[in-house]
Amino acid sequence: MVLRSFGLREEYAEMIQLCRNCRCLFWKSIGHPCIADQDPEFQEKLENVDKSSLHVPIPPQAFLKFFSL
User: Fold this and answer.
1) Is-above-0.70 flag for pTM?
2) In whole angstroms, what is the distance from residue 10 CA to residue 59 CA?
3) What is the residue-level pLDDT of the chain in tens, covering all 69 positions?
């Protein structure tokens, strides 16, 4: 009955992250050495940007759509 009232809640141990700088997919726990970090001009642009918005979580359903034909 709880399922009918509240719906199915999907929880994952960890989701893949997408780096908005270089478009790389990575696991947050492992980390990501972004290649854009090596560009001084790009670093100047990032000074006024919220760093938490640079990595976007990708749910499993969206990840699988990358490979659907």
Assistant:
1) no
2) 10
3) 455 677 777 788 888 999 888 888 999 899 888 877 777 777 777 777 676 678 899 998 888 998 876
Neighbours of 64 (CB within 10 A): 10
- Which tokens in the block code for residue 49? 């940007």
With b for 16 or more beta-carbon neighbours within 10 A and e for fewer, the 32-60 pattern comes to bebebeeeeeeeeeeeeeeeeebbeebee
